[in-house]
Amino acid sequence: AGVLGCTNIVLLSDHGMRNIKKLVNLQDIDPVYADALTSTGNNVLFYTNISSEPMKCKKSEYYRVYQRKDDVPLRYHYDHANVGFPYVNGNPGTMFVRNNTELADSESKNQKGNHGWDNMDTQMQAMFYTVGPSIRQNVTVPPFQNVNLYNLFADLMRIRPAPNNGTTGLLDALLVDAPQRENPFTNWNVEPCHRVTFENCDSSGQVPSVSDTKGYILTNDPSVCSISDGKLFLLYSTRLNQTVGMEMRVGKSTESSEDRVITKMNNEIIGRNCEDDGGRSAFMGKALESSLKLTWNEFDSQSLVQKAVNKLTEKENVRLQIGFVYAEEGPTKYVFVSGFWCLNQGWRKDNDYCVNEIDTRVESYAIPARAVDNFNCLDDDSLLFDYRVTIGDIEKLTSLSLLPKSMPLSIRNKLSQYLPTQEF
């Protein structure tokens, strides 16, 4: 009653906490480190370009080292020009000190806790409670990033939010009277590219009409057109003269072994199993009548991208999407790989989402084009885990829509923001 009866209250924290399990003395690794950094704690920022060789191949026992901006996981949003490198990120439970003096000070204070900010660590996730006349009672929502709070506050105050990096409507399940939302992707369509031929394994000819082929990766960029041979759906930028995205279905039970789309990477495109090594391209640049070059600029992390593709194609009847983000001067900056599959009842007839909507599962990676060194000598799973992102992260990075526009907005929002958690 009273003021509380007409006030919406939100209680939240900025991060979680962890017990300190390991103190790492940087002076013991290299005496130079003690005086060449700007901060300690759960991570270390160096302000001079020093050698990180003494930290090489520690297999992420206590920390991971990123030698340059392009190596840092995209989900950290840590790519400002003023960030120093190498950047050292402590594993959960690790804390850095500069030298023996700081080590003795920390031990004398018996310091027990510290925090990082990796939202894939369950113990770093923030607390969130809300109550009030505009809030539904006894509702639990999946974990979400704090960047989405702004839109919630705007809805509670019934004001129009300014453009932001949150996902509109993500927290509508909390609201007694949620605003009516329009699907922003409803009018997105991609026209077929013109005068394109392709070379299949045994014949050449005009590409069938793309409008007859299902592809759900979309953009509203008019300079992008689509190409398909019935197995592979591809988006090509006439402005960049480069492929920006592609999509295919890989299903163990729906395709014969000799006609199955495979995932071997080569310098052209995803190949089909036409030759023994599977490297023959479904689209060959030399067979194109137009000036289109259906390829991408070379990138160094091709083997790591292949590992992500292989991991996803282990799923049953997965819809696979691969795309490229180019720097302004032309080279490939990121390669994204996303997979969608269904539990239990499988896909709807149109293969746009699952018969039971909540059975849709996603897994996505944004891999820096130059992330090749594996400086930390991690195993494949640990290395790939660094580059896990949300679908929403990829969509903001690329201005593409990866989820079908026919998908209900509430399901789309949840899938676009899904990020796995891990107990470290």
Description:
The relative contact order is 0.13. The strands form 7 sheets. The chain has a 6-stranded antiparallel beta sheet with strand order 14-15-16-17-18-19, sandwiched between helices. A 4-stranded antiparallel beta sheet has the order 4-5-7-6, with no helix packed on it. It is α+β, with helices and mostly antiparallel strands and 424 residues long. The chain is globular and about 65 Å long.
In short:
GO terms for molecular function: hydrolase activity. Keywords: Glycoprotein, Hydrolase. The protein is α+β, with helices and mostly antiparallel strands and 424 residues long.
Structure keywords:
424 residues, alpha+beta, six-stranded antiparallel β-sheet, four-stranded antiparallel β-sheet, 8 helices, 22% strand
SS-based structural class? alpha+beta
**Biggest sheet: strands side by side, in what order?**
14-15-16-17-18-19
Oligomer status: single chain
Largest sheet: 6 strands, antiparallel
Record the SSE blueprint.
Elements: H1 2-5, E1 9-12, E2 18-19, E3 22-25, H2 26-29, E4 37-39, E5 43-46, E6 63-66, E7 87-90, E8 94-97, H3 100-108, E9 113-114, E10 128-131, H4 149-157, E11 197-199, E12 204-206, E13 218-219, E14 224-228, E15 232-237, E16 242-250, H5 302-312, E17 318-326, E18 332-342, E19 360-368, H6 380-386, H7 391-398, E20 400-401, H8 409-416
Parallel strand pairs: 3-8
Antiparallel strand pairs: 1-10, 2-9, 4-5, 5-7, 6-7, 11-12, 13-20, 14-15, 15-16, 16-17, 17-18, 18-19
